[in-house]
TrEMBL record:
The lineage of its organism: Eukaryota, Metazoa, Chordata, Craniata, Vertebrata. GO terms for cellular component: plasma membrane. Residues 46-296 form the G-protein coupled receptors family 1 profile domain. Coiled coil: none annotated. It comes from Anas zonorhyncha. The keyword Transmembrane applies. This is Olfactory receptor. It is found in: Cell membrane; Membrane.
């Protein structure tokens, strides 16, 4: 049972919480961890490989790949933030987590989630500049400016999340100490407070509003991109311009749709089945880090194939030998 300290006013302050697995499947938690473990493995390997490849190849030291590295770092951080408690709950069947550790995990989960929204916005700006101002792309997105954007994202997320921690430390938790997920989330924790948590809810809504603002700015950037693409006379050039945005657009949908579903369930689905809360949270936290590396690797593979076809046509036109063409076509 979670420990609690008693105050003179017959209230208690929780010293530990109990995490929860998937409702109704406690006997099968070790089996359930197998797909979770595979997702963790794919997420860590995929995002780790992206970081190593971008670092190793000088030809990838471009703005788009710098932002992709930021996204991979964020996904890796989000994955590692949930791994310890998910492993303990499903494999070792250890559910107790101390209040300070729970606060720390909550901070990192929400910080990396907030950071991912900011990185997706920065990537949308990158695509906007690439499509609408291609000749000025390298002069606008310089290395120094990208570094400032990265530092700004980290500062924004850190400063936005710190008040959330301070507000939570002031709340006494004297109700049930059982959380509804195998990790700590802000929405989950404030529901266990035995005093009015309106201020926490309002600040949480402020953070949600900032994420909504990010999504609106991303939508605006795509509106500008579509406007610029429609002004291109060549159908082939239109398709090429839109093709540069496909992977990012899919990443935006993968991130924001589960986030919207999780927010709606937490605020308006109190009568919904507990398993729906758990499944939506798992989709939101696990799916983007798993799918993003796959999306971008497929995109870059297709780009590589198209580039090789163009190189082959150029070599044939220049009268190169078959052996030279084959050597040039190798990856």
């Amino acid at each position: 049972m979670p420990r609690a300290s008693m105050s003179p006013g017959n209230s208690s302050h929780v010293l530990a919480f109990l995490l929860a697995g998937i409702p109704g499947m406690s006997r099968f938690h070790r089996w359930v961890f197998i797909p979770f473990g595979l997702m963790y493995l794919i997420a860590m390997l995929g995002n780790g490989i992206i970081l190593l490849v971008v670092r190793a190849h000088h030809s990838l030291h471009e703005p788009m790949y710098y932002f992709l590295s930021m996204l991979a770092t964020t996904d890796l951080g989000l994955t590692l933030s949930t791994l310890p408690t998910v492993l303990c709950v499903f494999w070792f069947r250890s559910r107790e987590i101390s209040f300070p550790v729970c606060l720390a995990q909550m901070f990192f989960i929400h910080a990396f989630s907030f950071m991912e929204s900011s990185v997706l916005l920065a990537m949308a700006f990158d695509r906007y500049v690439a499509v609408c101002f291609p000749l000025r792309y390298s002069s606008i997105l310089t290395g120094a400016r990208i570094a400032k954007i990265g530092l700004g994202i980290v500062a924004r997320c850190t400063l936005a999340l710190l008040p959330l921690i301070c507000l939570l430390t002031r709340l006494p938790f004297c109700r049930s100490h059982v959380l509804s997920h195998p990790y700590c989330l802000h929405q989950d924790m404030i529901q266990l407070a035995c005093t009015d948590a309106t201020l926490n809810s309002l600040y949480g809504l402020t953070l949600v509003s900032m994420v909504i603002l990010d999504s609106l700015l991303i939508a605006f950037s795509y509106a500008m991109i579509i406007r610029a693409v429609l002004g291109i006379t060549s159908r082939e050039e239109q398709a090429r311009a839109l093709n540069t945005c496909v992977a990012h657009f899919c990443a935006v949908l993968i991130f924001y749709i589960p986030l919207a579903g999780l927010s709606i369930i937490h605020r308006y689905g109190r009568n919904a089945a507990p398993i729906s809360h758990t499944l939506m949270a798992n989709v939101y936290l696990f799916v983007p880090p798993v799918l993003n590396p796959i999306l971008y690797s497929m995109k870059n593979k297709k780009k590589c194939q198209v580039k090789h076809k163009q190189d082959l046509r150029e070599l044939k036109c220049s009268g190169k030998s078959t052996l030279q063409i084959m050597l040039t076509a190798e990856c």
